[in-house]
Amino acid sequence: MKKKNPADKRKAPRIDYSVPFHYETQGMEYIGFMRNVSIGGAFINTNLWLDTGQEITLNVVLPERGYSRLVGNILRADPHGYGIEFVED
Question: Which of 40, 29, 47 is nearest to 83 (CA)?
Answer without folding.
Answer: 40
